[in-house]
Design goal:
Blueprint: H1 2-17, H2 22-31, H3 38-82, H4 111-127, H5 134-151, H6 157-192
Helix pairs in contact: 2-5, 3-4, 3-6, 4-5, 4-6
């Protein structure tokens, strides 16, 4: 059963990986780099500041930092535990495309996927009362980032799907933590006034 799932994952990887063309390679290589997300994060910080002010921004930044640390450690724990080679380390990659700067050894599950979907879930939940369509934009961005990992040849679809699901759950849990902190600090502030 596991071998059949892995074979299906390889076939799906080759299909999705080979959807690319040389004309689009630059775009997906760019999207896969973490730095390309910085302008989006800056815009989100501004939107958060405008709607929930400095205290809310500080709490949000703290929760995001804790969440990213958690997702990074969780992804690395799974990679080291499962030791599933990335597609770029497999012989069949010659039938696909490998465009990443480096390969890395293990890939189950994707750190980009868990962190992208965790951020999308948390931030869209924080901003949803103010910007009803933020959910669509955040998840579209997360999907672009995670597909880029298949396109450049460093993750299987199973790595991405697992990471995305783990990211959604993690983002929801950290949103609950964010909600708790916002209530606690707002109540403490009101009581001191």
């Amino acid at each position: 059963m596991l071998e059949q799932l892995q074979e299906l994952d390889r076939e799906l990887f080759l299909f999705l990986n080979n959807l690319g063309t040389k004309e689009w390679d630059w775009f997906w290589v760019m999207i896969t780099e973490k730095e390309v997300s910085y302008p989006l994060y800056l815009i989100l910080l501004i939107l958060i500041y405008k709607k929930i002010k400095l205290r809310g921004l500080v709490i949000t930044m703290l929760v995001v930092a804790l969440m990213i640390t958690f997702t990074d450690q969780l992804a690395n724990f799974f990679k080291d535990s499962f030791e599933r080679l990335r597609p770029c380390n497999e012989a069949f990659i010659e039938y696909g495309r490998y465009l990443a700067k480096r390969c890395g050894k293990y890939g189950y599950f994707s750190g980009h996927a868990i962190s992208s979907f965790a951020v999308a879930t948390l931030i869209s939940s924080v901003l949803k009362p103010y910007y009803k369509n933020v959910f669509y934009w955040m998840f579209a961005w997360a999907i672009l980032v995670t597909y880029s990992r298949i396109y450049v040849g460093v993750h299987y679809p199973g790595d991405i799907i697992t990471g995305a699901l783990m990211g959604i759950v993690t983002g929801f849990l950290f949103f609950k933590f964010h909600h708790y902190l916002m209530g606690k600090f707002n109540n403490d502030f009101k009581q001191k006034s």
